[in-house]
Amino acid sequence: MEESPYVFFLGFAFLWILLGLGSVFFVVKSQGPTAKIPAEALIVAIPILAAFVIALTFGAMSL
User: What are the angstrom distances between the C-alpha of 32 and each of 25, 36, 52, 60?
Assistant: First the structure.
């Protein structure tokens, strides 16, 4: 039962990630008929998301 706060925290963090990605998608989609994300945005977003996931995983595993 000591891990339950960490599971709750990780679930809440992933929920916020999904909400953020969904809102970005709807903003991009509302600006035109196609939802094209430029390559420069992916170059910036992927390392940020990867570091975030690694940090959350490390935090959950270091009990």
Answer: 12, 9, 30, 40
Distance CA 4, CA 28 (A): 36
Cα three-residue angle 17-19-22, rounded to 5 degrees: 110
Nearest 10 degrees: CA dihedral of 12, 15, 20, 21?
150
Q: Tell me the pTM.
A: 0.48
pLDDT tens over the chain, length 63 residues: 566 777 777 788 888 888 888 888 787 777 776 667 777 877 888 888 888 888 878 877 775
Rounded distance, CA 48 to CA 59, Å?
16
Q: Per DSSP, which regions of the chain are E strands?
A: none
Domain ranges for the chain: 4-61
